[in-house]
Design brief:
globular; alpha+beta; 15 strands; 452 residues; Nucleotidyltransferase, domain 5
Length: 452
């Protein structure tokens, strides 16, 4: 599998002059979006290579093509570099292609809903001309590395394209030399806040661990409310070999305090008030919680030599009721959970581990020992009471069930249908995956023999 990792290096000696370069590139992308949309029928008949050539022929004047059909590009974007022009064309084609794909999906979804007699309230996608794309600085044409900490980049300054010397942050270059390997791509000029960076990307080939099912170990993760994450290392027989609780109480307490302050300010100034500074602080804390949680999950998985990291499927956003303060906090938690899954997936693949998800229904509701539904503690929501009277951590029990559902699914794939039917007859918890627990996996491992 090919995995691409990227890292930003701060440009320390220039800020103001780089703003024009990004702005004029985005204007060029907007210009090409209109051209690609107008010539879409003709472009569909050509391969991707000839599509770029066609758009260039229609917009850029040369000695052999002095009068292009769209002659406004050269006047509006004087001396625009050729490689940057082709990059803008490819970005524009990707945006237009994505729009029409989304439009086709929308039409299919609407037809399915309406034909079945259901209401369809979803709005149709719109083609946005303004996009926040960043320019790729192609080596030789737009970017030259002079020495370890200095590079020469071509930027737009004083209505002309000129070469300037950029000083790169030493710590960033040192990190790249130590950690980044593989095929290197051309850097991208990006802006974050008031600073500008060169984003370097590297492609590596990763081989996943090929472990037999009976020797496999997974790390199952439950993203809770009181804890950022609870991890359990589970093997194919249902044995739990490791546990880890991950939490950032100080950051969460500060974020809840900021959300409360935000709601009070919005109540005073109106809900449509932007309050950029308050949101920046909240988003920075959310990002810090996400990064720390991801690092600890992957470190724990590497420590126990896990083959797969398993999560619940949490892409569907639930309807949230209650006060505005509560709704904002719950939305932030959902955004954080989705961001954690996406980052863990990338880091796990980089480390040679697979990533999987299982159905989330009843993972927290059912006790891991198969005794039935649990009752939450009203004073401490992270604790629950089993029907047997046993008190246990609810998130830890859910993480056991998540790992069990992964192995039950793998067992079903690896054995004949007849043998699986016999196992279901002995263990009724296998009838529906939403009723499966760790006790179900232990019973299944006792009646089914896995040879590989």
């Amino acid at each position: 599998m090919q995995v691409i990792n990227s890292y930003k290096v701060k440009i320390v000696n220039m800020n103001d002059c780089l703003k024009e370069t990004i702005e004029i590139y985005r204007k060029a992308v907007s210009y090409f979006i209109n051209v690609v949309t107008s010539e879409r029928e003709l472009l569909e008949k050509l391969s991707s290579k000839y599509r770029v050539n066609l758009i260039e022929h229609l917009t850029h004047s040369t000695k052999d093509n002095p009068h292009p059909e769209y002659d406004g590009f050269d006047r509006q974007f004087y001396k625009f570099p050729s490689y940057l022009r082709r990059s803008a064309i490819m970005d524009a084609m990707g945006i237009v292609s994505s729009y029409y794909s989304n439009l086709e999906n929308y039409k299919e979804e609407r037809y399915t809903q309406v034909s079945s007699g259901k209401k369809f309230k979803k709005k149709a996608p719109k083609l946005q001309v303004k996009h926040y794309k960043c320019p790729a600085l192609y080596r030789g044409n737009m970017f030259k590395m002079l020495d370890r900490n200095h590079a020469q980049i071509k930027i737009y300054k004083n209505n002309d394209w000129v070469w300037l010397k950029a000083s790169l942050r030493k710590q960033g270059i040192k990190y790249i030399e130590k950690n980044c390997r593989g095929r290197e791509f051309s850097p991208i000029l990006v802006r974050k806040g008031r600073n500008y960076y060169l984003q370097f990307a590297y492609e590596n080939k990763v081989e996943f661990r090929e472990t037999s099912l009976k020797d496999r170990v997974v790390v199952s993760v439950d993203l809770g409310i009181n804890h950022s994450a609870v991890c359990s290392a589970v093997d194919s027989k249902g044995t739990v070999t490791g546990r880890k609780f991950i939490n950032q109480p100080e950051e969460k307490d500060l974020m809840n305090h900021l959300v409360g302050r935000l709601c009070r300010k919005q109540k005073q100034s109106g809900k449509k008030a932007k309050l950029t500074r308050a949101w920046n602080k909240i988003n920075n804390l959310k990002r810090e919680i996400t990064n720390r949680t991801v690092h600890e999950i992957v470190s724990f998985a590497e420590k126990v030599n896990a083959d797969t990291v398993v999560f619940e499927y949490l892409d569907r956003f639930p309807k949230i009721k209650g006060s505005r303060n509560k709704r904002i906090r719950m939305k932030l938690q959902m955004w954080t959970k989705i961001a954690i899954q996406n980052k863990v997936k990338h880091k796990a693949h980089s480390a040679g581990m697979r990533f999987s998800r299982v159905t989330p229904k009843n993972t927290s509701l059912l006790a891991y020992d198969g005794s039935g539904s649990v009752k939450r503690n009203k004073d401490n929501f992270s604790l629950c009471t089993f029907s047997t009277g046993k008190q246990y951590n609810c998130d830890l029990s859910a993480s056991y069930n998540i790992g069990a559902r992964y192995f039950i699914r793998e067992y079903q794939k690896s054995i004949p249908a007849k043998e699986w039917s016999e196992a279901v007859a002995k263990e009724l918890g296998l009838l529906r995956r939403t009723q499966s627990t760790l006790a179900t996996l232990i019973s299944l491992a006792g009646v089914v023999q896995i040879e590989k």
